[in-house]
Each structure stands twice: as structure tokens, then as C-alpha cells.
Specification:
The protein is mainly alpha-helical. Helix content is about 80%, strand content about 0%. It has one domain.
Length: about 90
């Protein structure tokens, strides 16, 4: 599934939940969900962009490093870390 398909599916699911809440008369909960879903949608999109960018950088380094497995392995290990894992 492509990044745009993932984001579209996530958006459609959010929209269905918010519509359901409005239909059930849960206006306050629907508005809260809508605010939270909007923020989470930004995070999902940013995460997809981060993974795509990481893959481009690692592929570029791999091409430049040619057969130097040490450099390729080092970049893969650093590229696969999350920002939080750097703090631990």
C-alpha cells in the first residue's frame, strides 16, 4: 500500500467515526475526536514522509559507498533508529 493510500484510508476511517458520533448526537465528543484526528493525520503524513526520505538517503549512500559493507551497515543502523532511541 502506498503512502497516499495509507493516509487516504486513515482519513476515511476518521471521517466515518466523526460522522457516526454526530449521527448519535455526541456533538462534543465528535468535535474532540475531529481535533485529535486532525493532529494525528499530520503525524501520519509526516511519518510517511520521514520513512520515504530516510530510504532515499540510505539508497544514495549505498550507491556512493559501492561495496563498502561497513558504511552501508552503519547508515542502515543509524537510519533505522527512531529519534527517541537516540536518547536511551
Amino acid at each position: 500500500m502506498s503512502a497516499s493510500e495509507i493516509i487516504k484510508k486513515y482519513y476515511d476511517e476518521q471521517k466515518a467515526i466523526i460522522t457516526f458520533l454526530y449521527d448519535k448526537g455526541e456533538v462534543s465528543l465528535a468535535q474532540t475526536a475531529q481535533n485529535l484526528f486532525a493532529k494525528s493525520l499530520v503525524i501520519v503524513a509526516a511519518s510517511q514522509f520521514e520513512y520515504a526520505l530516510r530510504d532515499v538517503v540510505i539508497r544514495g549512500i549505498s550507491l556512493r559507498a559501492k561495496d563498502d559493507n561497513y558504511v552501508i551497515r552503519f547508515c542502515n543502523e543509524k537510519g533505522n533508529r527512531s529519534p527517541i532511541s537516540h536518547m536511551v
